[in-house]
Amino acid sequence: MAIRLPKAQLEDLHQRFATKFRRDGPNGCWIWTAATMHKGYGKISIGGSKPVIGKCKLISAHRVAWLLAHGVLPTRPIQVCHRCDNPPCVNPDHLFLGTQKENIADMIKKGRGSPPPPNLGTKLTAKKVQRILKTWWCGGVLKCDLAAQYGVSASMIGQIIQGSAWKHLPRPAGTPARSTR
Questions:
Q1: What is the pLDDT of residues 75-112, one digit of tens each?
Q2: d(CA 62, CA 88)
Q3: First to last CA, the chain
Q4: Three-class SS string for the chain?
Q5: Would the pTM of this model clear 0.70, i.e. be above it?
Q6: What is the pLDDT of residue 51?
Q7: What's the rounded Cα separation, in Å, for the pair 65 and 93?
């Protein structure tokens, strides 16, 4: 699916857009000089007082650059990605369409990042969670002690015990599916 704007709205957007960037050479980046979002991506209002794209009025300037160059704006899961890896760039020749996975692969190929490890940010494994549950249900241990032992918060231990975190794991034999203790 793609989004198209009425001709009059597209022309108005094009006029406003053209005043908000500077060109760095004939084949260089077109640097957005107006308002920016996180990580330096440009932003621009479309649709005036009535939202055009979902509930958003402000969208990324590089996405608008794609819209103005191609007449359509792709919707998720397709993204507008940068070949130049320069967030404020709005040069349509520097943009391409891809999925999040393709964009990350492009980033890694260019040496700008490393692949995320499995279960990014987790300190626990399935085996550790099952040991936590067995230890808890045997009794005589506090949540805060388990938290310190496994390097997580007591709140996380509580969520594991309650069955709201790591709920995809089978519960160890002899333990209830959800905590009643």
A1: 888 999 999 889 999 999 999 999 988 988 888 788 77
A2: 8
A3: 50
A4: CEECCCHHHHHHHHHHHCCCEEECCCCCCEEECCCECHHHCEEEECCCCCCCECCECEEEHHHHHHHHHHCCEECCCCEEEECCCCCCECCHHHEEEECHHHHHHHHHHCCCCCCCCCCCCCCCCHHHHHHHHHHHHHCCCCHHHHHHHHCCCHHHHHHHHHCCCCCCCCCCCCCCCCCCC
A5: no
A6: 47
A7: 10
